[in-house]
Write a structure and sequence with these properties.
Its cofactor is Zn(2+). Belongs to the creatininase superfamily. This is Creatininase family protein. The protein has 9 helices and 6 strands. The strands form 2 sheets. The chain has a 4-stranded parallel beta sheet, sandwiched between helices. A two-stranded antiparallel ribbon has the order 5-6. Helix 2 crosses helix 7, helix 3 runs parallel beside helix 4 and helix 7 crosses helix 9. It starts with 7 loop residues before the first helix and ends with a helix. Strand 3, helix 4 and strand 4 form a beta-alpha-beta unit. The longest helix has 23 residues. The chain is an alpha/beta fold. It has one domain: Creatininase (Rossmann fold), CATH 3.40.50.
């Protein structure tokens, strides 16, 4: 079910243990070949597929479409909000949902820059609402073990506007993928302990702007992106999300 497509009367009749999903995305550069809406389109794809597959088991909130993207501001078109603003926005939305009586809330994250602040939200909201289940999932972390088998570009190949995001966009919105603009990330080397990607986290956190990390805004190798891979990634993530939803439905 889609939250804002229902009437107030319909919302009032929904069982309060149904998992409510809030997608946390971003509007930011994704190299020359992918649109600014990439993170939003990917996150919304997952929740829309859930809505189609299990409409009576999930309630989908409007997306938070601008996230914490200050590290991408060297590239035209990127929009960002501060961490404090992001926390307040998501916190207020979640508190509204809780006030309507819902007890299972999933924060579905589709942007790397939202991960740390998302964890803060889970801890803050969880502490303040001990009877509510607050869960945050970042899609590539959720299915990371299975995604390893699909990774052809190797270490450093899946980071931003990369093999995986390009594959998903070829599935979700192929008309927005500029195939003639695809190019490998122009990475800048740094300390070995600070380097990682979607599947292989760094050993230590070390801030650099995106342009310092990769001069063309791509981290990884989108040349390995394919439609078939996009279908496989989508299925893996959606299956894992279904497992979380079914587990939450069994809680009292």
């Amino acid at each position: 079910m889609i939250w804002d497509q229902l009437t107030t009367e319909q919302i009032g009749r929904i069982p309060k243990n149904i998992p409510v999903i809030l997608t946390m995305a971003a509007t930011e550069q994704h190299g020359k070949h992918l649109p600014l809406a990439t993170d939003r389109l990917i996150g919304e794809h997952f929740v829309n597929e859930l809505h189609i597959a299990i409409p009576d088991k999930v309630l989908v909130l409007p997306t938070v479409s601008i996230g914490c993207s200050s590290h991408h501001m060297d590239f035209s078109g990127t929009l960002t909000i501060s961490h404090d603003t992001f926390v307040r926005q998501v916190e207020d939305i979640v508190k509204s949902v809780i006030q309507h009586g819902f007890t299972n809330i999933i924060l579905l994250n589709s942007h790397g820059g939202n991960q740390a602040v998302g964890q803060l939200l889970v801890e803050k909201l969880g502490y303040e609402n001990p009877t509510i289940n607050i869960v945050m999932v970042t899609w590539w972390k959720l299915a990371s073990e299975a995604l390893f088998s699909l990774n052809e570009s190797g270490k450093g190949g899946v980071g931003h506007a990369c093999e995986f995001e390009t594959s998903l966009m070829l599935l979700i919105a192929p008309h927005l993928v500029h195939l003639d603009k695809i190019e490998k990330g122009m990475h800048t080397k740094t300390f070995s302990w600070s380097e990682g990607d979607m599947l292989r986290g760094p050993k230590a956190s070390y801030y650099r702007s995106t342009k310092e990390m990769t001069t063309n805004g791509v981290f990884g190798d989108p040349e390995y992106g394919t439609l078939e891979k996009g279908k496989q990634i989508s299925k893996l993530v959606i299956d894992d999300l279904k497992n979380i939803i079914n587990d939450l439905l069994t809680t009292e």
